[in-house]
Write a structure and sequence with these properties.
heterodimer, A: two-stranded parallel sheet, 10 helices, 2 strands, B: about 150 residues, mainly beta, 3-stranded mixed β-sheet, 2 helices
């Protein structure tokens, strides 16, 4: 198929718009189910935690749904390109690469995303960028399970391009990609929900010292100028921005 | 020649309806089976609407052969000329169906022309090949998602 040929341009543009809309819908529904689910759990585990926060939560949901479109468009375009034009380095046959590569690709994706997030997040805390974009996310004081995608469109854009770009660069099995997206979704919600769901034995273990969960990210929302990471504490430790964990 | 004329007529009529030409023999060499467990279930259909699961096509050619890690050959015999697509899967546990986990196949699968699987199986056109003329041999490589 030749996308550039003018005879095909009409239907192709329509298909691309359709794919973007469909992916926006999927991202929005994924957000509502995950954030809604953890909000319900929060209500049971920490009754009253979100009481009186209706206004903040409504704002969080509004920004998050706007972000869903910004995430959905590039993801929809790439998904369409994979399906119809064979774009990306996604693979379906697990043995197309050595078996050990599957877990390695998972770590590569998480580490690449974490690295991108750490440095763009630090940029977002520069006064100009903070006022222009990141203040939206920090308007949640403290955030709730609904704040997972509560970003200004500028910031949402920096997050939306990561995975769609990575799939062109780093080979990944489709199910491993699904796992990456699941981890991204669950950690995005749980790191903001205001309480720690992982056992103390993990959070305060030698492994926990390198992993980011709610206890670590909550401190970022308390103090702003520390704990910038997404999944791992590697960059925070290397750059001296790690200030330990909080007790949400 | 009085005999040749009706024969020529018969041949051209057969070409038009494509039904009574000498039917080519179709066979498929299947490679990449990961084990000799269970069977290979194959389905060859000329009906785009019933591909890849050609249960609803009464004219489909179905074959079940014991799996062999060294590869198997599917012999469909004589097939009426036309455009066909083949789908097959490695029924390792012998339960007669392609097992899935969260909509993703747990058993091996393959398609003619090694048509690629992305969000779901390939379209008929991506896997279609012409059955015409002499005997023909296709090769299909099995893929395993997990």
């Amino acid at each position: 198929m030749d996308v550039a040929s003018s005879a095909n341009a009409g239907p192709v543009v329509l298909a691309l718009v359709g794919a973007s809309l469909a992916m926006t819908g999927i991202v929005a529904v994924r957000y509502l189910i995950t954030s809604g689910g953890f909000a319900l759990v929060s209500q049971r585990v920490r009754p009253g935690l979100y009481v009186g926060r209706g206004r903040q939560i409504r704002a969080e949901i509004g920004w998050s749904l706007l972000s869903a479109a910004i995430y959905g468009i590039p993801a929809g375009l790439v998904a369409w390109g994979w399906q119809h034009l064979g774009w990306t380095r996604l693979y379906v046959d697990l043995r197309a690469y050595p078996l050990w590569y599957a877990p390695v690709s998972l770590l590569l994706y998480l580490f690449a995303h974490d690295t991108w997030f750490y440095w763009t997040h630090r940029l977002m805390h520069r006064p100009r960028w903070f006022r222009a974009a990141h203040a939206v996310h920090h308007a949640s004081r403290p955030p709730t399970a609904w704040a997972a995608m509560s970003f200004h469109p500028i910031e949402a854009l920096t997050g939306a391009v990561v995975i769609p770009a990575l799939v062109f660069l780093v080979p990944i099995h489709i199910a491993v990609l699904a796992l990456v997206l699941t981890i991204m979704t669950v950690m995005g919600v749980t790191n903001h929900m205001g309480w720690e769901m992982f056992p103390r034995a993990l959070v305060h273990s030698r492994l926990g010292a390198w992993l980011i969960t709610a206890s670590h990210h909550h401190r970022h929302h308390e103090h702003y100028q520390c704990n910038y990471g997404l999944y791992f504490r590697v960059w925070d430790r290397l750059c001296g921005t790690d200030r330990g964990v909080s007790c949400p | 020649m009085p005999i040749a004329a009706p024969a020529a007529l018969a041949v051209s009529a057969a070409a038009l309806i494509g039904a009574s030409l000498p039917a080519p023999l179709v066979s498929v060499s299947v490679t990449g089976l990961r084990s000799g467990k269970g069977t290979v279930m194959a389905c060859l259909t000329g009906d785009p609407h019933t591909f890849p699961d050609c249960q609803r096509d009464p004219a489909a050619h179905r074959l079940i052969v014991p799996a062999d890690a060294g590869g198997v050959v599917l012999d469909f015999g004589a097939v009426v000329p036309g455009s066909y697509a083949l789908s097959l899967f490695h029924d390792e546990n012998g339960n007669g169906r392609l097992d899935t986990v969260m909509l993703m196949p747990r058993e091996g699968f393959g398609f003619s022309r090694d048509a690629k699987v992305r969000f779901g199986p390939p379209k008929f056109t991506a896997a279609a090949f012409a059955v015409e003329g002499a005997a023909q041999r296709q090769t299909v490589r099995m893929r395993y998602m997990f």
